[in-house]
UniProtKB/TrEMBL annotation:
GO terms for biological process: D-xylose metabolic process. Transmembrane segments: none annotated. Keywords: Carbohydrate metabolism, Kinase, Transferase, Xylose metabolism. It comes from the Bacteria. This is ATPase. Belongs to the FGGY kinase family. PANTHER family: SUGAR KINASE, XYLULOSE KINASE. InterPro entries: ATPase_NBD (IPR043129), FGGY_C (IPR018485), FGGY_Carb_Kinase (IPR050406), FGGY_N (IPR018484). One of its GO terms (molecular function) is kinase activity.
Amino acid sequence: MDASTAISRGETALGIEFGSTRIKAVLIGPDNSPLATGGHEWKSSFVDGVWTYSLDDVWAGVQAAYADLAANVQERHGVTLQTVGALGVSAMMHGYLAFNADGELLVPFRTWQNTITGEAAGVLTQLFQHNIPQRWSVAHLYQAVLGGEEHVTDIDYLVTLAGYVHWRLTGERALGVGDASGMFPIDPATGTYDEGMLGQFDELVADKGYPWRLADLLPRVLPAGAAAGTLTDEGARLLDPTGQLQPGVAVAPPEGDAGTGMVATNSVARRTANVSAGTSIFAMVVLEGQLKALHEEIDLVTTPAGDLVAMAHCNNGTIDLSAWVSLFGEVATAVGATIGMNELFEALYTAALDGDPDGGGMLAYNYLAGEHVTGLEAGRPLFVRTPSSSFTLANFMRTQLFASLGALRVGMDVLLKDEGVQLDSMFAHGGLFKTKGVAQRFLAGAMNTPVSVGEVAGEGGAWGMALLAKFVGQGQDLAGWLGAEVFARADVSTVEPDPDDVTGFDQFMERYRAGLAIERAAVDALR
């Protein structure tokens, strides 16, 4: 079947992902390869001390991304996009979207970027003896309780961004287990919220007299492959106001970006891991069993199939690195040179390969926001060198690339060194890895583990969500289905760790840990 016929017959699957800076849509065909893509740039706003996105921007953005996809279908395949075989929505995990019984948003969306729930996260972590990061929905809820916020009494539904969009598209209050595991702890034995911890939370707030139990506020939890509703008439118009898209499409359980990243890199089986690098950077390690101890640097979430995952999540990814690249682009423009951004990224990243193994004795922090893994409630991007540092372009870029992996290494040391977790493979995806052989090589050195990148990695989580949409009703094990149906003939490049890179990154990390005092001083001094 050719692509045009597949699209016309609906032998396709659509994945939509709300990333931190881009909303992306990917349409895949019967062979799981992308047939068309669409996208829309957006960004969060810092309003009254809170990182947020407006719901108007959510819908304007997804409509723009879908329209871009539909135009790409028309241009590449000569057909009008009117239906798909299945679709699914994923988005940034965690955060706080609270609605009343009339479906009205009670307070502006509080995203994962916020580090304003420290008191609540600390209380809940000790109460549950289970790490509750500041990003998690239940931490935001309890912080609102502690703050005496009036809206808490009126909450009827609490959900993530992906779950909210799914609700509006289908009318279903459902969430994939991977995304749900970033709202409240999941019991791997039952595949849903931990009943004991739900009871502990209700007891904790019992004196407040709220007219709800926590379980009543949360979406129901579904594993990958389960049916999660169909696209309604209203939902079809929300995606495509032109009226071309028809309702009735099967919709997968909405997932978080961590889960779709695992799917996109074939990292849902035990002893596999993946690293996603974008606005944030995080590693997902599928565990063979429970960890031996409580670690506040590590989140415990699940795969979209419900298997336990250790997540080392860092708020600060590639934004500061991209800002430096843009600055060099301004320099080029100032001297009359014309160079595209892709070419600029490739030239600067590749230059880093010629740097000293440790980056020439220099140090950088990419902290635009706070970084829980290293104990920072706020961030200030820094670049530091000593008189003896080797200040060259190659070393500068190597240091900046190393900095993007520094906080991640702190979290991974807990798993690989303290807990003795075993890994068979690590996959990497996201914009950081688009320049071949650079960040992939440095990650292998940072983790002293082979790192693989696939040709599909650039499509990222939206492609992973399209695969989860296609997986609905398959009745198979997710890892087995991915291995047999999607990745059996995948073009994957694997880089082994270079001993010099391993040693050099270790030396960089010695400076990184010691220099955190400088970062803390900068936060205190520069308000």
